Automatic annotation (TrEMBL):
This is DUF6545 domain-containing protein. InterPro entries: DUF6545, MAB_1171c-like. It comes from Streptomyces luteosporeus. The chain crosses the membrane at residues 6-24, 36-58, 70-94, 106-126, 146-166, 187-208, 220-242. Residues 353-374 are annotated as: Disordered.
Length: 403
């Protein structure tokens, strides 16, 4: 068991340290934000608690100070009472108006102070008659009245905080306006639930001792519950900060992929109709792989492709369109897949006709471009052109007029 804790708890402490360092940067711009300050206190206290929970560290602290089981007291005060009150304070400021949040937070902080003072008193009382350090303070001393009262108070305060966090997160997570705040609250509720499992496990120690059972038999649940809890707490409480950046990164990645997928279609059109390219250097391999302002360049690429398609209308043959439709039907295509195939085949034929300067007879040209599929806004146009680009790229090189 000690081996598991020696791995899990330092990892949890490191996670808390990373969360603290990640959020402390925000103090430059949000120095007077009480929720941020409470969150930093919570991560700091939890990190101290997990550090002390590492068996070798707790033993070293006791030896250095010369007071047995002082590390255990630090674990429970920092990791249970102080951190849960700080986590709860941060969430209260998230979900309530500032004045109401201040009042509610003050009540919870005062309650945490009272609990901490009583726990210290019980811990001191339990020291009388005890001259040996306990490797598992709560488990090995739960049969003593002072320690039993200490354990009950600790678990009650920690568990009550987790229950309140779960209640607030589930209640306001359903109505939170910002997507990542909503996700963060729900994730935080998962973490608090895991910590509540730890509290129930510790509470069961009192019952198991009376029944003659050995709580060490299921002590593995402690690092599992604590590790799971802090992971989701850290993820949920920092999610409103890094979540939007993640969404922006995914959006930029999608834009970059779309930009690359449209390149063969754009290249064919800009070669046939050079005037459509606002920036001729955009065809440069380096500019293609490392485009600046990807959103703007993607938007320009869509516009330029549309301009190229309109410029090819005089070279589009209705007979080619009809033949492409029959071929697509025979291939079992339907809907957008059929229209995209027809568009790609017709475009390839129009490019060959443009190269050979073979315009169609005067009259209404065959539809070429997204309007053939019904049109729409920018997102619809982009989705349509991506389908056409995929079909165009799948055509044989000879049919695409590549030499």
């Amino acid at each position: 068991m000690g081996d598991v804790k020696a791995v899990v708890f330092p990892a949890c402490a490191a996670l808390c340290a990373l969360a603290f360092l990640y959020k402390v940067r925000d103090l430059r711009h949000r120095r007077n934000d009480p929720a941020l300050r409470a969150l930093l206190v919570a991560f700091f206290c939890k990190g101290v608690s997990f550090t002390l929970s590492t068996p070798l560290v707790a033993q070293a602290v006791d030896v250095a100070v010369g007071v047995n089981d002082l590390g255990a007291l630090g674990i429970h005060l920092f990791g249970g009472v102080a951190s849960s009150a700080a986590f709860l304070t941060a969430i209260v400021y998230w979900v309530y108006p500032r004045e109401e949040a201040r009042r509610r937070a003050l009540v919870r902080l005062l309650a945490a102070v009272v609990v901490a003072v009583v726990m210290v008193g019980l811990w001191i009382a339990a020291k009388n008659g005890s001259h040996q350090r306990s490797a598992h303070y709560l488990l090995q001393n739960a049969n003593r009245p002072a320690v039993a009262a200490y354990l009950l108070l600790y678990v009650s305060a920690f568990g009550a905080g987790m229950i309140e966090i779960i209640r607030l997160c589930l209640r306001y997570g359903r109505v939170a306006g910002r997507q990542w705040l909503r996700r963060g609250l729900h994730t935080t509720a998962i973490g608090a639930s895991a910590c509540l499992v730890y509290c129930l496990n510790r509470l069961f120690v009192l019952i198991s001792v009376q029944c003659g059972l050995d709580p060490l038999d299921w002590e593995l649940l402690t690092p599992i519950a604590n590790g799971t809890g802090i992971f989701f707490l850290v993820a949920g409480l920092t999610m409103p900060s890094w979540g939007p950046r993640l969404s922006e990164g995914r959006r930029l990645a999608r834009s970059f992929v779309a930009y690359q997928r449209l390149h063969p279609l754009w290249h064919a059109l800009s070669t046939a109709v050079p005037g459509i390219a606002l920036d001729p250097q955009s065809g440069n391999p380096l500019a293609r792989l490392l485009p600046r302002d990807t959103d703007f360049r993607l938007y320009r690429r869509v516009i330029e492709i549309q301009d190229g398609l309109r410029a090819l209308r005089p070279y589009m043959s209705p007979d080619v369109v009809s033949a492409a439709q029959r071929s697509a039907h025979e291939a079992g295509l339907a809907g957008d897949a059929l229209r995209a195939r027809v568009q790609a085949v017709s475009l390839a034929a129009a490019l060959r006709a443009k190269r050979d300067n073979r315009k169609q007879p005067a009259g209404e040209p065959a539809p070429v471009g997204p309007e053939a599929a019904g049109g729409g806004g920018y997102a619809d146009e982009l989705a349509w052109l991506l389908k056409v680009a995929r079909e165009y790229t799948a055509l044989p090189a000879l049919e695409r007029n590549e030499r």
